[in-house]
Amino acid sequence: MKRSYFSTVVLALVLAFLYVPILLVVVYGFIPNGISMSFFDSSGRFAGMTGRGYSMIFSGDRRLGALMQSFWLSLVVAGLATLVSCALGTTAALALHRWKGRLQSVHHALVYTPLVMPDILIGISLLMLFVACGVDCGFWTILIAHVTFCVSYVVMTVLARLQDFDDRIVEAAYDLGAGSWYTFFHVQLPLLLPGVVAGGLLAFTLSIDDVVITSFVNGAGTNTFPTYVSSMTKHSRNLPAVFALSTLMLIFTCVLAGLSKLVARGQQPKTRSTR
Questions:
Q1: Closest residue by Cα to residue 192 from 228, 166, 223
Q2: Which of 221, 229, 219 is nearest to 249 (CA)?
Q3: For residues 201 and 256, is the Cβ–Cβ distance under 8 A?
Q4: 101 SS3 class
Q5: What CATH number did the domain enclosing 178 receive?
Q6: Total domains present in the chain
Q7: Can you tell me the distance from the alpha carbon of 146 to that of 144, in angstroms, rounded to the nearest whole number?
Q8: Which of 52, 89, 100, 139 lies most in the core, judged by the most C-beta atoms within 10 Å?
Q9: Does residue 272 form part of some domain?
Q10: 3-state secondary structure 1-20
Q11: Tens digit of pLDDT for each residue in 23-66?
């Protein structure tokens, strides 16, 4: 079947809409003038490209002290939120898959609610909760807030994996004398690992990218990378370093995505050709 020109043009426009902004972030990491954010000088001549933003990052420039601190804070929060969300989300998905009833319907509704609730409403609700409990906003409130919305995505991802799961494998392990813990870690978890990794990758991406919820629950000196960048984009001279650091984050995320693909491919059963 011959593809029409209209569908090709629509596909090209959609791809450009999705990926051109990402390419611009990579390109602007090499911009020579951080004040005017232009590749041209005052006389209109092309000023070239420079890696000064990357050199400032790797040399530990003091002017980027607050920026790098927010970057490492984002990585720590996203990593911890991903680990906690994977643990809680996997157990919640197993409970929803194994047991049915009215209580589990309420459980499923509570898990699904953060997916459709606006971020600003989640942020305000968590802030009111922390204020009512007398908790000072800081690192731990950011971590709790991120786990709150990340765990729902892990649950849904693992539940999708459980839809095709054959429960007879677990029953066979029990019949062969395996205990519940041994069956989970050696039989069930390896089969669910692609779903857990996919949910964890999604949770990590959402956590390190969050601005709205974090802006409500962060305290003094606990700005994450997105919140710090959003406050400096209009007046900072070090924007090339911001774009360079964003490019490094993009590469790191792509590496994680590639590793998740390798894990998913390694978990697929190998079929032998028969004659």
A1: 166
A2: 229
A3: yes
A4: coil
A5: 1.10.3720.10
A6: 1
A7: 5
A8: 89
A9: no
A10: CCCCHHHHHHHHHHHHHHHH
A11: 888 888 888 766 666 777 667 777 677 777 788 777 777 777 78
Q: How many CB atoms lie within 10 A of CB 121?
A: 12
Tokens representing residue 258 in the block: 């590639």
Tell me the two tokens of residue 160. 């999708």
- Host domain of residue 116: 13-267
Confirm whether 170 is domain-assigned.
Answer: yes
The residues with which 33 forms a beta bridge, in sequence order, are 38
Q: At what angle do helices 189-209 and 139-162 cross, to 10 degrees?
A: 140
Q: Which pair of tokens denotes residue 171?
A: 């029953």
CA distance 124 to 115: 16
At 115, the amino acid letter reads: L
Angstrom distance (rounded) from CA 82 to CA 74: 12
Q: How far apart are CA 74 and CA 211, in angstroms?
A: 11
- Cβ neighbours of residue 53 under 8 Å, at least 6 residues apart? 29, 30, 31, 34, 238, 240, 241, 242, 243, 244, 245
What is the tens place of the pLDDT at every residue in 91-111? 988 888 888 777 778 877 888
User: DSSP 3-state assignment of 46?
Assistant: strand
Residues 6+ apart with CB under 8 A from 261: none
Rounded Cα distance, 32 and 245, in Å:
16
Q: DSSP label at 269?
A: P
Evaluate whether 201 touches 260 at the Cβ level (below 8 Å). yes
Q: How far, in Å, CA of 239 to CA of 254, rounded? A: 23
The two tokens of residue 155 are: 């649950």
Which element (helix H / strand E) includes 257? helix 239-267
From the CB of residue 82, how many other CB atoms can be counted at a distance below 10 Å?
25
How far CA 232 is from CA of 66, 236, 260, in Å, comes to 11, 5, 33
